[in-house]
Specification:
Helix content: under 10%
Distance between the termini: 49 Å
Largest sheet: 5 strands, antiparallel
Structural class: mainly beta
Number of helices: 3
Low-confidence stretches: 1-32, 541-558
Radius of gyration: 28 Å
Bound molecules: beta-L-arabinofuranose
Number of strands: 42
Strand order of the largest sheet: 1-2-3-4-24
Shape: globular
Mean pLDDT: 87
Length: 656
């Protein structure tokens, strides 16, 4: 049967087509296949990433409601998503709302940020007080996903005009600072409790340090003070009603952090439409030095689709990322924004290269372990969300809801025939999987089949590797977990996984899906060698029976796996901000790891790329820089861990 998604190809094909500038698919399909925007079922804005001590990267977002009221931001809560590979994102649902602040009003839940300190999570948000003025509140939680509660029962600061967009950084000496504001910029030094600030901070006005950035503050644009703020935040020309309103470029949405000894303030800049600019300083309170643009509002003649932008910068697994928002999701615009991510690069002096907004997003920095419980809401994309852009009636396919299962979180719901989810880079290991389990709920009689989950590897063409019958438990909220067998000779190695849901054509709510898990094949213990041939029996003393403790069984013997041979690189060629490497195939290799850096000895700032083929093109490199690279092959050892062979000789490429 031809399915409604038969024409969709693998994301790799889309990326390749995009790279070759070949238009092979309708734009809507390309959107569905790309990993930017990273959230595709609701509109999200103002991303605030946090690399958590639990090893995951969390991104907190504000939320543009589907229905925009009074032609203005309609925003009532904040959402949270996490990943540990940068491509598969787990949805943690709504983690904070204006209801959590008794003193606050609806429709003003704007750009927040979460900061971890001493095992607690502090969620700083701008929100209007009941009198309608902006204010900054703080809520505290014991886990990155909350619950968060307001310990103050009043704003941390404000209400006052234009108190929006707080950003917090805890410096190396333990002193935390919070910047905020549009169009003026403010900062306070937070106390150690993170929910109050030092009202007597030297040089402040009752604790507040202010950078005056509006024209009104400077009758004389040639004044020392005006020139001083322009040196810190650039020379701006934003006009309103024919009058210059901003003599600087700073607009709003500051993101404050430290990297490699330099302090950074990255912010929305240059009026409307906003781009992203940055300033640097040697100390947390400046003076700042304006450094330029990081992301334009227009790339190749195409706008981002949103008149605002909002940065969030984070270091994760050896990479630096810029989170931002665009209007690129289906039906997107300035009040229907969507969070995206691209990698950013620092030059040796700490300055940051300009990057475009992309639809490809970033490369994976890890693989997904299918032998641990995986939430069904952990996906790279689905054919049935807003991103697919194929829903003329405005009823998007798969939805998510708070999960009624005892484990909480969210689950997938409103699943209909031929909807699918896509999970990238799933590592089944060398020995493979023998079982597949899923936890679902369906509003059918106990034991009756409500639909199927078909699991495909790498492509939805061909045969599924698992066909799981979703059975009911009697009502829509009785959760049922079943297990089926799968063939380990097929389900092994690294794959992208499609889970396709099938069932009655007309039913728009076949079942709900909470989580899934595979079971790994366990190598059976090697049988003990036979006893040596007994020699002639010696005379024996009388037998006395003594109770013996049970003998512990020996751990299963593991077959020894040899490391693969050294790689020989045959081509190292420069491209425009890219380099292409080719090497000879190594017998038995399951994949290759490429190590590259601008550091000659390949000891510092080394990045890696893991590939299956004997060729790679590494993109987004620094223009004009010389890169050094080496390649190693790997196999899987008996514990399904990668076992690397010797690295190739170092090759050198000067990027164009
Ligand atoms: O999301 C509402 C406002 O738009 C934010 O607070 C600003 O940073 C801009 O993104």
């Amino acid at each position: 049967m031809r399915r409604k998604w038969d024409f969709i190809k693998k994301p790799a094909a889309v990326v390749l087509a995009a790279a070759l500038c070949i238009t092979v698919m309708p734009a809507s399909v390309k959107k569905a296949e790309a990993i930017n925007p990273i959230v595709q079922d609701v509109y999200t804005a103002d991303p605030a990433p946090m690399a958590c001590s639990d090893g995951r990267l969390y991104v907190y977002t504000s939320h543009d409601e589907d229905e925009t009221l009074n032609g203005f931001y309609t925003m009532n809560d904040w959402k949270c998503y996490s990943t540990d590979d940068m491509v598969n994102w787990t949805d943690h649902g709504t983690v904070l709302s204006y209801h959590d602040f008794e003193w606050a009003k609806e429709n003003s839940s704007w750009a927040g940020q979460v900061v971890e300190r001493d095992g607690k999570f502090y969620f700083y948000v701008p929100i209007n007080a009941k009198n309608g003025q902006t204010a900054i509140g703080v809520a505290v939680g014991d886990s990155p996903t909350g619950p968060f509660t307001d310990p103050l029962n009043e704003p941390l600061i404000g209400p006052a005009p234009n108190y929006i967009d707080p950003t917090v950084w805890v410096d190396d000496d333990g002193q935390a600072y919070m910047y905020w504001g549009n169009p003026d910029l403010y900062c306070v030094a937070l106390n150690e409790d993170m929910i109050s600030y030092d009202k007597e901070y030297p040089g402040s006005d009752k604790g507040i340090i202010k950078w005056e950035l509006e024209t009104n503050d400077y009758k004389d644009l040639e004044s020392e003070e005006c020139k001083n703020v322009q040196a810190q935040f650039g020379v701006g020309t934003r006009m309103d009603n024919g009058k210059l309103r901003r003599p600087t470029l700073y607009e709003e949405g500051p993101w404050f952090y430290k990297h490699d000894g330099h302090y950074y303030l990255v912010y929305a800049a240059n009026g409307i439409p906003e781009r992203i600019d940055y300033s640097m300083a040697d100390s947390p309170l400046g003076p700042w030095e304006y450094k330029g643009m990081i992301m334009d509002d227009n790339v190749d003649g195409k706008g981002s689709g949103s008149f605002t932008n909002h940065p969030g910068v984070v270091e994760y697994k050896g990479h630096s990322y810029l989170f931002y928002h665009t209007g690129k999701l289906f039906d997107g615009n300035g009040y229907h924004r969507s969070v995206a991510v691209d990698e950013i690069f620092y030059n040796e002096d700490g300055t940051i290269d300009t990057i475009p907004f992309t639809s490809e997003g970033v490369e994976p920095v890890g693989s997904l372990n299918p032998y641990k419980r995986v939430e069904a809401e952990t996906i790279e994309y689905s054919n049935s969300l807003k991103a697919a852009g194929s829903d003329p009636l405005g009823k998007y396919g798969i939805e998510k809801e708070p999960c009624s299962n005892s484990t909480g979180g969210v689950n997938l719901c409103d699943i209909s025939n031929d909807d699918y989810i896509f999970i990238r880079n799933v590592d089944f290991g060398q020995h493979g999987a023998v079982k597949f389990s899923a936890c679902t709920a369906a509003d059918v009689e106990a034991g009756a089949v409500a639909g199927k989950i078909e699991v495909y590897l790498d492509s939805i063409d061909g045969d599924p590797v698992a066909e799981y019958d979703v059975k009911g438990g009697g009502d829509a909220d009785t959760w049922v977990t079943n297990t089926i067998e799968v063939d380990k000779s097929v389900v092994n190695g690294l794959h992208d996984v499609y889970m396709v849901f099938t069932g009655e054509e007309e039913n728009e709510s076949l079942f709900k899906f909470d989580y899934w898990q595979f079971t790994q094949y366990e190598i059976p213990p090697t049988p003990a060698p036979p006893n040596p041939t007994p020699s002639a029996p010696a005379p024996q003393p009388p037998v006395v029976s003594v109770p013996q403790p049970p003998v512990p069984s020996a751990p299963p013997a593991k077959a020894e796996v040899k490391a693969p041979a050294k790689v020989k690189v045959t081509l190292a060629k420069a491209g425009k901000r890219s380099m292409t490497l080719k090497w000879k195939k190594v017998s038995g290799a399951r994949g290759y790891r490429v190590y590259y850096s601008t550091n000659k000895s390949l000891k510092k700032a080394v990045k890696i790329a893991t590939v299956k083929k004997t060729k790679v093109t590494i993109k987004k490199l620094k223009k004009g820089k010389t890169y050094y690279a080496r390649v190693a092959a790997y196999v899987y050892d008996s514990n399904s861990k990668k076992l690397f062979g010797k690295k190739s000789a170092v090759v050198k490429v000067k990027v164009k």
